[in-house]
């Protein structure tokens, strides 16, 4: 795929750009939605260190954890208004602002892996659409940062669409909940801090949370030992964005350096989770995790249900319709849908 070739050259490109970066010093605050000390947060801190080194010390990004200055779902407004300089967030949190953000975040069940999705951004027109949408809120969308295919821990084995009938599953409100409701499940809104206890007490029987390694690190497999893997529903996309006025004030070489740096961050993030997931998969039997790989025909049924939700989401705003149309064209071109 083209994305592999382009990402592979990023490090070399940064070296070429770096010596010519402006001598002006920049000091920016970036808030992430990840917790301090977590594996993905450390990857973001590596990005900041790379930017400082590549700019000969001119770019200084202070990486802040979730809720350091504002809540995780308020960084869009905080960056747009200048309270923060940058964010490492996800458009998922802003689907209520405009449905287009929800489709920038994910097309549930649309992609088989994160590389297909990120390639839509860089080769299929997604980057231009994201920048257009974020600009309306005072931000410049520097680049997409995925973290991989999410898995679903369940208390009982679920091998088909029909077996989700009546299952209480923790799911965020929005298109994801709409999709699982459409196949007969009973989505429940549960705060992240209560997922483990809700599974343990039987309030829910399954949960949307994250990749199989993050789920395992949170102890979810101790109370929900079955894992639908590879995942069926979610390959979410994150972003690194900056205040638009700040971005526009930068010289072209500094802008290019940041764009290349974010592409490297995306690869680092994917590799971090792929490695962590591989370790969990290798030890799955020892950990007592039963992996459930849905048959192609069941994945096709689920994707068919998802397509109706995509279309309904697209109808909520003109920008959402643009994102939907672009991704439908892309998904057809790579053979994911007919």
Describe the structure.
The chain has 338 residues and is of the alpha/beta class. The protein folds into two domains: 2-147 and 235-277, D-Maltodextrin-Binding Protein, domain 2 (3-Layer(aba) Sandwich), CATH 3.40.190; 152-233 and 287-314, 3-Layer(aba) Sandwich (D-Maltodextrin-Binding Protein, domain 2). Helix content is 49%, strand content 14%. Strand 1 (26-32), helix 3 (39-54) and strand 2 form a beta-alpha-beta unit. The radius of gyration is 20 Å and the shape is globular. The relative contact order is 0.17. Residues 1-21 have low confidence and may be disordered.
Describe how the helices and strands are arranged.
Blueprint: H1 2-8, H2 10-17, E1 26-32, H3 39-54, E2 59-64, H4 75-81, E3 86-89, H5 99-105, H6 114-123, H7 126-135, E4 139-146, E5 152-154, E6 168-170, H8 175-182, E7 186-188, H9 195-200, E8 206-207, H10 212-217, H11 220-223, E9 226-228, E10 237-243, H12 244-248, H13 252-282, H14 284-287, E11 290-292, H15 296-314, H16 318-333
Parallel strand pairs: 1-2, 1-3, 6-7, 6-8, 9-11
Antiparallel strand pairs: 3-10, 4-10, 5-9
Task: Offer a quick outline of the entry.
The chain is an alpha/beta fold. 49% of the residues lie in helices and 14% in strands. The protein has helices at 2-8, 10-17, 39-54, 75-81, 99-105, 114-123, 126-135, 175-182, 195-200, 212-217, 220-223, 244-248, 252-282, 284-287, 296-314, 318-333; strands at residues 26-32, 59-64, 86-89, 139-146, 152-154, 168-170, 186-188, 206-207, 226-228, 237-243, 290-292.
């Amino acid at each position: 795929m083209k994305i592999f070739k382009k990402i592979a050259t990023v490090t070399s490109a940064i070296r070429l750009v770096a010596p010519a970066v402006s001598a002006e010093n920049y000091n920016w605050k970036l808030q992430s939605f990840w917790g301090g000390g977590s594996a993905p947060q450390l990857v973001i801190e590596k990005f900041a260190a790379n930017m400082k080194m590549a700019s000969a010390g001119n770019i200084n990004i202070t990486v802040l954890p979730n809720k350091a200055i504002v809540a995780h779902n308020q960084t869009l407004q905080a960056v747009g208004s200048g309270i923060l300089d940058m964010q490492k967030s996800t458009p998922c949190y802003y689907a209520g602002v405009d449905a287009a953000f929800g489709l920038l975040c994910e097309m549930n069940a649309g992609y088989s892996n994160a590389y297909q999705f990120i390639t839509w951004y860089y080769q299929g027109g997604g980057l231009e659409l994201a920048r257009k949408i974020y600009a309306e809120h005072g931000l410049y969308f520097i680049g997409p940062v995925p973290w991989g295919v999410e898995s679903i821990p369940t208390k009982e084995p679920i091998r088909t669409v029909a077996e989700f009938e009546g299952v209480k599953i923790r799911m965020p409100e929005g298109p994801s909940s709409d999709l699982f409701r459409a196949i007969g499940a009973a989505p429940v809104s549960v705060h992240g801090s209560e997922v483990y206890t809700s599974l343990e007490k039987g309030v829910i029987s399954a949960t949307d949370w994250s990749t199989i390694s993050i789920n395992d690190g949170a102890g979810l497999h101790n109370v929900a030992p079955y894992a639908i893997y590879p995942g069926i529903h979610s390959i979410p996309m994150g972003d690194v964005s900056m205040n638009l006025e700040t971005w526009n004030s930068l010289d072209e070489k500094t802008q290019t350096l940041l764009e290349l740096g974010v592409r490297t961050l995306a690869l680092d993030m994917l590799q971090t989770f792929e490695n962590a997931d591989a370790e969990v998969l290798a030890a799955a039997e020892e950990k007592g995790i039963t992996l459930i790989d849905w048959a192609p025909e069941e994945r096709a049924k689920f994707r068919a249900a998802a397509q109706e939700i995509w279309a309904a989401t697209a109808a909520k705003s003109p920008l959402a319709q643009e994102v939907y149309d672009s991704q439908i064209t892309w998904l057809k071109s790579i053979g994911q849908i007919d």
